[in-house]
Amino acid sequence: MNTQAQYLKTIYLVQEEADGPASTGAIADRVGVSPASANEMIGKLEERGLADHEKYKGVSLTDEGISRARDALQTYCIIERFLWEVLEVEDFQAEARQLESVIDETVAERLDTIIDRRDCCPDCFDAETDACELLELEVPSEPAD
Amino acid sequence: MSLTQPVASDHQLARLLQIGMVLEEVVEARAHNHYEALGDDELDAEIVALLEDAAEESGEHRRRLEALVDELDADPIAYEEIERLVSARYESDTDFDGVLYDQLCNEETAYKFYDDLIAAIEGSDIEFTIGRDRLLAVLEEIRAEEREGVEEVTELMERRR
C-alpha cells in the first residue's frame, strides 16, 4: 500500500469517527508525521481530486477519495486477518501497521484467498481497536467432554 | 499507523519472507489443483508442463525463503496449517483461460511482492543478521524468475489466441 493509500485510509477513519471533516492535527497524529508533512500530502490529495480541504474546518474526502480509502482499508483488513488467522501473530495490529506499506493490494488479494473475510468488509472495521470487530480474537477453548 | 521504515528489524524481515513463503505455497497449490481438477484429458502438454514448472519453481523459492528465515531470529510458522488452509479454500477454475489467467496473476503478484520487498530493504539502513548483499541477491534471483514466469505465461496466452 503506498503512502497516498495510507493517508486516504486514515482520513476516512478520522472522518468517520468525527462524523465530519478530519482535522489536520488528528491526521498527522494518526499517521505519525508532523502537521507540515500531513499538509503537504493533503495538498496532493486535493490536486488529485481525492479530498477537499477547508481552512479551520478540516479535510473531507471526495466520492473518489472515499472509494479509494475503502479499498485501502480493505487491504489493511486482509493483512490484519492474514497475520492473525494464518501466521497466528498476537500483536497483529502493530505488525500490520509496520507491513502495510510493503503489501500491495494485488498481493493482499492473493492472501485473501486463504482467509475468512466477510462481505461487509470494511464496514466492520473498528477504528478504536484498530481491527475488524468480527475477528474472533479469543483462542477457541477445548470442548468439554 | 506510521510511515516509518517497513523493514526495520530481523523480525519484520522474517515476517515478510514468511508472507513470501505463503504466496509461493498458494501458487504451488493452485497449480497442483488446476492439474488435479482438469487432468491430462482436458489439459494439453504445454499447459501441463507450465503448471508443473510453476509448482516446482514455487517449491524451490519457498525453500530458499525458508533458509533465509531460519537464519533470522523469528518464530517458525505452522506450515502444515498453511497447506491445509490453501487447499481447503481453493476454488478451481475449470477452463484453459481460467488456468492461464490465474497463473499469470500468480506470477505477477509474486513479482510485485519481491519488487516491493527489495525496494523496502534497499530503503532501510538496518543491519540484519543475514548479510544484506546475499539477502538481496537471493531475492533478486527469485524476482527475475517471476518476471520470466510472467513472460512465459503471456507468450503462451498469445500463441493460443
Query: Based on DSSP secondary structure assignment, what is the total number of beta strands of chain B?
Result: 0
User: Termini of chain A, distance in Å?
Assistant: 47 Å
Helix-strand topology string of chain A: HHHEEHHHEE
Low-confidence segments of chain A: none
SSE pattern of chain B, N- to C-terminal: HHHHH
Keywords:
heterodimer; A: 145 residues; mainly alpha; Arc Repressor Mutant, subunit A; two-stranded antiparallel sheet; two-stranded antiparallel ribbon; 52% helix; B: 161 residues; Ferritin; 5 helices; 78% helix; Ferritin-like_SF (chain B); Ferritin-like domain-containing protein (chain B); DNA binding (chain A); transition metal ion binding (chain A)
Description of the molecule:
Chain A: Belongs to the DtxR/MntR family. Chain A: This is Metal-dependent transcriptional regulator. Chain A: Keywords: DNA-binding, Transcription, Transcription regulation. Chain A: Residues 1-62 form the HTH dtxR-type domain. Chain A: Pfam families: Fe_dep_repr_C, Fe_dep_repress. Chain B: It comes from Natronomonas aquatica. The complex is a heterodimer of chains A (145) and B (161). With 145 residues, chain A is mainly alpha-helical. Chain A has two domains: 3-66, Orthogonal Bundle (Arc Repressor Mutant, subunit A), CATH 1.10.10; 69-132. Helix content of chain A is 52%, strand content 8%. Chain A contains six helices and four strands; from the N terminus they run H-H-H-E-E-H-H-H-E-E. In chain A, the strands form two sheets. Chain A has a two-stranded antiparallel ribbon. A two-stranded antiparallel sheet of chain A has the order 3-4. In chain A, strand 3 and strand 4 form a beta hairpin. In chain A, helix 2 (24-31) crosses helix 3, helix 4 crosses helix 5 and helix 4 (63-85) packs across helix 6. The longest helix of chain A has 23 residues, at 63-85. Chain A is elongated, with a radius of gyration of 16 Å. The mean pLDDT of chain A is 89. By secondary structure, chain B is an all-alpha fold. Chain B has one domain (10-159): Up-down Bundle (Ferritin). In chain B, 78% of the residues lie in helices and 0% in strands. Chain B has five helices and no strands. The chains are: A mainly alpha (145), B mainly alpha (161).
